[in-house]
Amino acid sequence: MPKKKTRRRLKLQEQTSRAEFLEKVKRYPIAKGKEILVNPTDRDKMSQVLLDFVDPLLENYGSEVPVKKIIGVGIMAWNLSLFPEGERRKLLVQVVEDLSPETEDVKAMHETMTWLIDRKMQYFDRHKRHILEFRLSDLGDRYGLQVFSLDVPGNR
């Protein structure tokens, strides 16, 4: 297939995927009655913010750990950072134990999650949005990332 047609086909698949993704997130109970903005012009794209946030992990572990797993761990740390500190510490212990059933993995995962939370608060603190869902698409020579997020109540 000529290169031009392949690019067009990939773009069309990505657009279809976006429409399916949007329909899926509209069914979330938390999204009911809320306006769902697609690529609002008055704020940063959360997909790009999320990629910037997890970039050090992608650089260090991208060949060993699937990209989808790295992004998932990044999202958990991101969302934990939005909780008050006392609640965050309790939730972090629970999440790490759920993710890492083996003792040696618990320590490494706890360190990684703590580092990510600190990173979020230091470099990305102005972004007060819960990340509820993501979709990663392998587009051949690159990935497509779609992110569904909602503002933390009282922030914008």
Features:
single chain, globular, alpha+beta, disordered N terminus, 156 residues, 5 helices, 58% helix, two-stranded antiparallel sheet
Note down, in words, how this protein is organized.
With about 160 residues, the protein is α+β, with helices and mostly antiparallel strands. It has one domain. The chain is about 60% helix and about 10% strand. It contains five helices and two strands. It is globular, with a radius of gyration of 17 Å.
How many helices in DSSP terms? Answer: 5
β-strand percent reads 5-15%
Overall number of domains: 1
- How do the helices and strands follow one another from N- to C-terminus? HHHHHEE
Q: Mean pLDDT score, rounded? A: 82
Shape: globular
Structure classification: alpha+beta
Main sheet record: 2 strands, antiparallel
Distance between the first and last residues' Cα: 46 Å
Indicate the topology.
Blueprint: H1 3-26, H2 46-61, H3 67-81, H4 85-99, H5 103-123, E1 129-138, E2 143-151
Antiparallel strand pairs: 1-2
Helix pairs in contact: 2-3, 3-4, 3-5, 4-5
